[in-house]
What we know:
four-stranded antiparallel β-sheet, 42% strand, 15% helix, 1 helix, mainly beta
Amino acid sequence: MCPRIFKKNNAKDIIIIFLLAILIIPSFLLSVQAVEHTILRIDPSTQVVSTGTSFQVTVYCIPGQRIKAFEFTITYNPKLLRANSVTEGDIFGDYKTFFNNGSIDNNAGTINNIYGLILGPDSVSSSGTFISISFTAKSTLGSSAISLKNIGVTN
């Protein structure tokens, strides 16, 4: 014969614990917050340029939450484009920042290690540009995507 584990008083205690669990568990579930996605895009998304013409594109950011730092790599077709320079954008406004304009490799069609961050505890939630890139169209005809890789945006 199995011994009785629950007595009348123990059953009352179990009911109280069960009721407390019902009251406490939903408070943990309700504390979960939805996080909006941060959107990065290259502006303008398309443009037609003539051979030998220099033009600019920007990497624009619409933050889904407060941000204070970013990093990424840019890729492009080196047969069609030559990257000239990368300059810091306006998203971090008047805050003191540390900015690295990356390393341009026109043979591989990459700009590696582009990053920027606000020094100190500040962060931003307003949209703006991370960077501007100056390119020159080469003599070859065609179209080239300019893409973002290895993206990191943090608060």
